[in-house]
Each structure stands twice: as C-alpha cells, then as structure tokens.
Amino acid sequence: MLLELNIENFAIIENMKIEFETGLNVLTGETGSGKSIIIDSLGLVLGQRANKDIIKKGKDRAFIEAVFSSYDDETKKLLSEYGIDSGDLIVISKEIRDKGPSITRVNNRTVTSQILSKISTHLIDIFAQHESISLMDNKNQLRLIDDFSGKEQRDLLLKIRQIVQEINDLRSEYQEKSSLEKNKDREMDLLEYQIKEIEDAALTDYDDQELYDDFNVLNNMTDTLIKLSEAKALINDGYENVSAEDILDKIIVNIVDVTKFNKDLKATEEELEDIRYRLSDIAKELDRYINSREVDEEKLQYLRERIDLVNNLKLKYGNNVKKINSFYEEINERLVFLQNFEDNLQKLLSKIKNLEGEALKVAKKISDNRKKTAKVLEKKVEEEINKLNIKDAKFKIDLKEKDLSSDGIDKIEFLIAPNLGQDLMPLAKVASGGEMSRIMLGFKSIIAEKDNIPTLVFDEIDTGISGKTAQIVGNKIKEVAKKRQVIVISHLPQIVALADTHFAIKKDVVNNSTISTIDKLDYEERVQEVARLIGGMNISEVAIETAKEMIGD
Fold first, then answer.
1. What span is annotated as the signal peptide, if there is one (predicted)?
2. Where are the domains of the chain?
3. Distance between CA 118 and CA 456 in Å, rounded?
4. What 3-state DSSP class applies to 469?
5. 24: nearest Cα among 519, 498, 523, 508
6. pTM over 0.85
7. Measured between alpha carbons, how far is residue 257 from residues 195, 266, 270 in Å?
8. What integer pLDDT is reported at residue 171 of this predicted model?
C-alpha cells in the first residue's frame, strides 16, 4: 500500500508530506486548495509525462516521492528482472528540473518511463475524473474485457500482435517486390554487369594496400637508384672526393698510433674498426640492391592499370575490398531472387496465408475468452450498478466480428438501459456524468477483486451524485476499503464521514506566495470539516450534530 507521498515545489505545494493509513483515506478541501494537484503529483511519480511548468515559481526543481509497502511476489520478480533491489519498501521518486531532463528512480535505481509503468501497475490504480470518459471509448472497453480475462488472454494477445506484425511486414515486402515487375529485366541486366565486373577483377587483400606500395616503389625506382648510387660512392668511391672509408682509415691510423702509449683508448680504436667494417658491409649491401634492381616499365604499366581498375571498383561499390565483396554477395542474392521472381512472390503469399490462418486460430481463442468474460461481467456489472442506485438498469456487452487485426476479430460496445423500459443503447449516448462515475466504480470494485492491486485512488468519483445515491456510493467505497487501501478526494459529506483517515487541504498566502498545506484531522476537526461540507462556511449547531451522527463514535 501507499505509506507516504512527499511533494516539494510542485505547483502551489512547497513542502508536503502525507502519511496514508490502511482502509479508507479521504482528502477534502476548498476548490483550488490543491486536492487534484496531489493526485496529479502521484500520477507523475508513477509514470505520467512531466511538464516543467509545474515547478513552483522561483524554484529550479520539483521533487515527488512515493513510498509503498505490501507488494507481492510477482512485483518482486519484476523488480529483480530490471536489476532493482527489493526489500520491505518500494520507493519511487521523480525529480523534475527546470534545466535538464526529469529523472525517475525506483529504490535509488534510475529507470525509464516504460519500466516504471510496468512496476506501478502492480502497486496502485488511479481513477481520475477523465477516466469515466475513457470508458465510453470502444478500444478501452475492449482493453477492460481483456484485463479481466486474465494471464492466458494477455499471452494470447501478445502472440497475435507478434503474428499480425509479421503479416504486415510480409505484406509490405510483397507490395515492394511486386512493384519491381516492370523494371525486373533492366535491373537483372545491371546486376549481371556488376557481378561480371567484380568477378573479372578477381580482387584480393593485396589490392587494398600492397598494390599501391609496389607501384610507389617501382614508380620511384630511377630516383631511388640514383640516390643509392650517390650514397655508395660517398662511402667507398674516392676518385674525385675523399670517401667515408678513407676518412675512417686515417682516423683509425691516428688512434692506433696513440694507443701504443695510451691503453685507455683501446676500446675506442676497436669501436672505430667495427664501424669501418660495418660501413663496408653497408656499401656492399647497397651495391647488391642497385645491381639487382631496374626500372621495369612493363610491370609499372600493369600496376598503373591495376590501380585504375581497383579505384574504379572502390568508387562504385565500396571503399575497400571487404565492402566490394559484401556488395557482390548482396547483388548475387538479389539476382537469384529476380531470376526466381514468381516463385519467391508465391512463397511470400503462401507464408502470409499460413500466418493469417495461425492468427485467426489465436483470434478465435481470444474471442471465446471475451465472450465468456462478457457474460460474467454483464451479470456482475448489472448487480453492482443496481447496488449503486441505478435501479432496474440493464447492462450488456455487444461483441461483433470484424476483420483480423492486432487485437483480434472482435468489436466491442458497452450497452446500457439505465431505466426500466428503455432500450439498450451505447454507454456514451445514454449514461449521465453521475451514472458514468458509478458504472466506473462498479467496474473498479469488480476488477479489484481480481487484480490484487493493494491501493485504489478515486479523484472526485462522486461527481454528479448527491443524497441517497451519495450514501450508497460511499458505502460501496467503504466496502472496497475493507480489503485494500483506498484514497478518495471527495466533497460529499456522505462519503467523507465514512473515512478511516481524514486529511484536509487548504491554501494560505505566505510572503506574497500561495502555498497549499495538509493536515490529518482528529475527531473534532473531522466533525467541523463534515459540517462545513453540509452547511457551507456558516456552520450551524444542526450541521455539527448531523456531522457527528454521520461520523459516529
């Protein structure tokens, strides 16, 4: 159940902490005091989209935190799937920043809105004023039937959505490929040309880099041989100039003369002699290289033409050999497909037909479940709305067959005859606002028995009712609250008087700023608040006595 709701800098709420109790929790207050803001904040922390405009003026962030306890094993399993620690409590928080994105956390782990929605549906169900309108929508009616049908129905719906998605993808593929008929021959000619061009080139990994390296070596061979010949001449050819070897020989002779008397330079002498031999080896290596190389014009021309060919292919089909080969595989597959064009289209049609048959079988199972559920719900809803003072009302769920889609083959319409003698008509055309609220309450009380959600929230479900009907609705809410926590925003004394815990919301002006506050009322304060709801601002003794009688001991 919901233990705490903490709200900071949200609309006209500066800092509010509400500690809810088991049973029936009722919130009252003047119009505009902030009652609905509390429900809005709860909706936001549970996954609704946040608007930065709700941040209190002059603040840079709003913060909402909801603390839950008493959740089941299924919820624990769901938390574990998302890597969220589960202990005795589930703490959900949302921080809405003026600058930057909103951040939602569950037990200190940041989560997405999608994950949060999956978790929160196991913890709480909020009925706001607009939900009675949503009950008029045929899609929502269908969803409600499916929710009541249980896990098997949810699994079947997931399966049919997957199959229908696959059918739609295959149909799109069929349409796309069918449109190729008129251009098929032209495309095949192009593909055959491209395949032959790539095959004739016989590309290898060599063509990516080594080809260019070999060309650069051969293309620069004349300059290379000139430079290497000059280098060799400087080492050991001394016809016109003194060579490096001659210079080293003279150095060594001088050092040898010195080492006769100074043994400390013996190591230097040996190093110089080693350099002399190494330099001689280098000269021989350069000589071998020079004599073994020549400018091969024929090979140079081949490399030049090969580079032109490879560059042309890279420009057309990919900037390296791997990508060209990948492209080659794709166009080969494409050519094979076009060569077997009619057969492939027939295979697609056959696959679509088989999937449609499979989807239809699943859809019929879904439809059978809906029909069974509809019969149960018709009876239960009729009983509930009769109890809620829509006497002699008749309720029927009309199922008609439609074309196969992702939700099956059923079109659903909720029909009602609110008064004796009236014909059954669509809910949207017959029911008044007060009747819609009671019908929704009837649905909620029925579903609450099945879904095991520990907390129900009703935001002004008493709209459009009064007197005896208000008392009946109040008793129904009280009955539901015996099995789970119920939070209600109400302005009717008949409902407010039944509260196990009563909160009063008011707004004050502090430092030229409107601030909403909340108090948990004791018995005397509850009497005063119920009396206010009975008689308005001028509370009479009669109103107080009536309030005491309604609240009881």
1. none
2. 152-364
3. 16
4. helix
5. 498
6. no
7. 77, 11, 13
8. 92
